[in-house]
Write a structure and sequence with these properties.
The complex is a heterodimer.
Chain A lengths: L2 H12 L4 H14 L5 H32 L21 H8 L1 H32 L9 H13 L2 H11 L6 H8 L13 H30 L2 H9 L4 H29 L3 H6 L13 H10 L5 H57 L1
Helix pairs in contact in A: 1-2, 3-14, 4-14, 5-9, 5-11, 6-9, 9-11, 11-14, 13-14
Chain B lengths: L1 H7 L8 H40 L4 H6 L10 H10 L5 H32 L5 H11 L8 H10 L7 H4 L6 H14 L2 H9 L4 H12 L1 H17 L2 H6 L9 H5 L11 H31 L6
Helix pairs in contact in B: 2-15, 4-15, 5-9, 5-12, 6-9, 9-12, 12-15
The chains are: A mainly alpha, B mainly alpha.
């Protein structure tokens, strides 16, 4: 089977989740494959049936239903008949967009996400640079990886409650340490301060996820062809320069993947903010996120499916738009630059021609 | 050997050799000190909260009030456990059992059916195959939280709230697991064996169960760990669907009870409750950390 080699190559890359490359590589592999008898191939459909049915019932229908609900008057636990809005079909959306709490929650969510993602990516990159050095290898990497990743696997709700206990006021470990060291005169109520509470949620997210991001990035670096590094080494490039000019550009697809998944996770963040204070975004809505808002629209007592679904759809839309934007922005940059350079070259070429012509004329 | 390689990136080739090497050596020692200090600090940062949790679980509330952080355990564990299980709501064994049923069910469904779907995508040639795979990639990242409202209302209408099934069955269509299984299967499934099994008269369903499943064991094990842990940690969906079913609360749902007023000053019991909720995860992690880290590196989990 000669396609095998081809496929192996594709899979090595796939560890870096480079979806686009993957698909194109496969197209090549598939065409090379021998056609098998048709009666077997019908099992391709048969084996896909459970997935498709479960998807239709438990994923697609709820998605469509959420979208539909956002255009109806669905409200209340027991409602005889749900009907579409007649006077203004977008009334639920308008109501949500006018809702100050929703807007506050949206900015909180984005705020907390950015506050966690930027330091998380920077630290993960730094650790990746350190852990993939060719000289001065850091020992105990296996241990560090295991320990750094550990918080990620622990129940987020438990972690949030643990931090709630650690930040306890007036008696709690952190207050104990800080007053003991003389940093604080008296205990500080961390979770009663809007800014601090947000930072705490962002910190927990950061703390839970930098290890994950680091491992993904390290595996990305290991996926880069060693020949590039070797030639950089031969050329006498320093470790730092190699990282900036070779490792980073090659890591772009993985960083992009991390950015998008983190953004989606961040905009639907729920477990930690809901568990760390009173479950309603205390103090004073500082940790109220999109998902808490949506949940409370229904289970806060009013069973307002109409506004909850409209809010869901809005966040959904934002996620789709942002994801597309991120992909486009980062993938088109090179193309745009290339086009610009081509134009420039063209101009220079024409100018040179002109000069030549003029030179010839004189 | 090291001297030569270290010399490679020295820009000032004309400088006398000795001092340059000394300089580089000093630099590399400085780097190592910084790197180890940072790494050890981060390691402590990872361990410290859990350390405090496990130690304080054994200490009385009076001890914790006096010194919130201690390195040595005390002997009040039994007392704390007694206090926390005294009340009706927080039932750790019940929570364990419920979480275990949901997580085990989810894991079995996700791993078994995802392998099956991956098999369909790898072993057969069918018209919609590529379209189906593209579709799976497209739905990979859709967050469940945003379609949860429709899901809840739908389940409410068909009377499935208060049941574990709506938490388990959706994992039959686990796009992330399918993606991973397919990536693993593609290079490692020998088509010749399938062909010869067919010649021997084995049916496709039997081929799947007797040849494909055993071959896929390593990948299935990795995915099983992640499916189990992911499901165990879920809070949003169970909280919606099992809100009014008191006897069916999962462990993460029970944990949020620890915020209640009964435990306001019972610090020891809060730490005991938290320790109980995460203990199984610690056991899993320290037994399987090697495979888990390797699985993460393969991109096996979604962010």
């Amino acid at each position: 089977m000669e396609p095998f080699e081809n496929e192996n190559g594709a899979v090595d890359k796939s560890t870096t989740v480079q979806a686009a490359e993957q698909i194109s590589a496969e197209a090549g592999a598939d065409s090379g494959r021998r056609r098998k008898s048709l009666n077997h191939n019908v099992f391709g459909y048969i084996f896909s049936i459970p997935f498709v049915i479960a998807y239709l019932i438990f994923h697609l229908y709820p998605t469509i239903y959420t979208a539909i609900l956002s255009f109806t008057d669905a409200q209340g636990l027991i409602q005889e008949k749900i009907s579409f809005l007649t006077s203004d079909i977008f009334a639920n959306y308008k109501r949500i967009l006018d809702n100050a709490t929703f807007k506050e929650g949206f900015w909180n969510t984005f705020h907390i996400w950015a506050l966690n993602f930027i330091p998380q990516m920077l630290l993960a990159l730094l650790l990746t640079a350190w852990f993939t050095r060719h000289r001065n290898k850091i020992r105990g990497q296996g241990f560090f990886k295991v320990v750094f990743y550990m918080p990620n696997i622990i129940t987020a709700a438990s972690v949030a409650l643990l931090f709630n206990a650690l930040l306890g006021y007036p008696v709690g470990p952190l207050n104990g340490i800080f007053t003991g060291l003389g940093l604080f005169d008296k205990p500080f109520d961390f979770l009663d301060n809007k800014v601090v509470a947000r930072i705490v949620v962002a910190f927990i997210q950061f703390w839970m996820w930098y290890g994950y991001t680091m491992i993904i990035l390290i595996s990305g670096v290991l996926g880069i062809s060693p020949e590039i590094f070797e030639s950089a080494d031969v050329d006498g490039a320093s470790e730092f320069k190699t990282f900036i000019h070779i490792t980073l550009p090659n890591l772009k697809p993985i960083m992009l993947y991390t950015l998008v998944t983190s953004l989606i996770g961040g905009l639907t963040m729920y477990d930690i903010p809901v568990s760390i204070t009173n479950g309603k975004g205390a103090p004073r809505n500082a940790t109220l996120t999109n998902t808490i808002f949506i949940y409370n629209q229904v289970f806060g007592g009013s069973y307002s499916y109409r506004t909850a679904s409209a809010a869901s759809m809005l966040v959904f839309l934002v996620i789709i738009v942002l994801s597309i934007f991120v992909f486009k922005m980062l993938s088109d940059k090179d193309e745009v630059r290339e086009k610009k350079e081509n134009k420039k070259r063209m101009k220079e070429f024409k100018r040179a021609q002109k000069i030549q012509q003029q030179g010839g004329a004189f | 050997m090291t001297l030569i390689t270290e010399n490679n990136d020295v820009q000032t080739a004309f400088a006398p050799e000795e001092p340059v090497i000394v300089k580089r050596k000093k630099k590399s020692i400085a780097f190592k000190i910084v790197a180890y200090v940072v790494c050890i600090f981060l390691a402590l940062l990872s361990i410290f909260p859990f350390w405090v949790m496990f130690i304080n679980a054994t200490r009385s509330s009076a001890e914790i009030t006096g010194h919130p952080v201690s390195l040595i355990p005390s002997n009040h564990l039994a007392q704390n456990i007694e206090y926390i299980t005294k009340y009706d709501d927080f039932k750790p064994l019940r929570g364990f059992f419920n979480s275990f049923v949901v997580s085990a069910g989810t894991t079995i469904c996700a791993v078994y059916f995802s392998t099956m779907t991956a098999f369909a995508l790898v072993a057969y040639e069918w018209k919609l195959k590529n379209a189906f795979f593209t579709f799976i990639m497209a739905i990979l990242m859709i967050p469940a939280q945003l379609t949860g409202i429709g899901f809840y209302k739908f389940m409410y209408q068909i009377g499935m709230t208060g049941s574990f099934l709506p938490l388990i069955l959706p994992s039959i269509a686990a796009a992330g697991t399918v993606f991973f299984m397919r990536q693993y299967m593609k290079p490692s499934l020998p088509m010749e064996i399938l062909q010869s099994a067919r010649i021997d008269g084995a049916g496709e369903i039997r081929i799947f169960h007797t040849i494909v499943l055993p071959l896929m064991k390593p990948a299935m094990a990795t995915q099983a760990i992640f499916a189990f842990v992911n499901s165990w940690n879920q809070l949003f969906m169970p909280q919606m669907l099992l809100l009014s079913a008191k006897e069916k609360k999962t462990m993460p749902m029970m944990v949020s009870l620890l915020r209640g007023d009964i435990y306001k000053t019972e610090y020891g019991s809060i730490y005991v409750g938290l320790s109980m909720s995460v203990l199984p995860l610690f056991v899993i992690y320290f037994l399987l950390s090697k495979y888990i880290i390797a699985g993460v590196a393969l991109g096996g989990v979604k962010g």
